[in-house]
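Appendix C: a fully annotated inverse folding record. The material below is reproduced so that readers can follow the format used throughout the book. The structure is listed first as tokens, followed by the designed sequence.
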């Protein structure tokens, strides 16, 4: 039996020109460094935030995230890695740290993105999963994410699927373009 959650990330209408405002700040966030974990919100729109700063390990980090109704979706770039990290969470999950979870993600009717996610808990104790997209695939991901209205994340182990309306297409494109 499959369960579905509505995972809404807002739908504020944003002018395309706003995406150019993000390109500079998000590119600049790749150069952040420091000794303390700290991120700064660079721009906010609806439930989405673009941020930059340093991770707990002192590595530079930037990305976009949204966290409505006890759920979380984040796309992050850590340092100069060849991958981007997607982190997702639902407070109702029961996740075992370091366990492997098969994840399939689809944006509208585009091809399936498949990954093996690692179980983890965020610093605040919330359960989460994280998986990676190779940097070489980011252009394709950006195109699909920026032109899609719906995101669906499916799990092979019986966890409830997550579905979201991404809202205005320009809004979806905002955060990814600068990465």
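Designed amino acids, in order:
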């Amino acid at each position: 039996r499959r369960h579905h959650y509505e995972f809404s990330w807002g739908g504020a209408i944003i002018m395309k020109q706003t995406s150019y405002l993000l390109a500079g700040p998000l590119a600049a966030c790749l150069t952040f460094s420091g000794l303390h974990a700290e991120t700064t919100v660079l721009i906010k729109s609806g439930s989405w935030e673009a941020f930059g700063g340093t991770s707990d390990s002192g590595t530079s980090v930037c990305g976009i995230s949204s966290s409505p109704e006890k759920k979380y979706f984040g796309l992050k770039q850590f340092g100069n890695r060849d991958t981007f990290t997607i982190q997702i969470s639902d407070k109702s999950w029961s996740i075992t740290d370091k366990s492997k979870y098969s994840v399939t993600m689809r944006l509208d009717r585009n091809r399936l993105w498949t990954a093996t996610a690692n179980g983890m808990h965020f610093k605040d104790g919330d359960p989460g999963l994280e998986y990676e997209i190779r940097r070489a695939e980011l252009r394709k991901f950006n195109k699909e994410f920026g032109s899609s209205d719906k995101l669906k994340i499916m799990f092979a182990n019986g966890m409830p699927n997550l579905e979201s309306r991404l809202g205005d297409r320009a809004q979806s494109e905002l955060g990814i373009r600068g990465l």
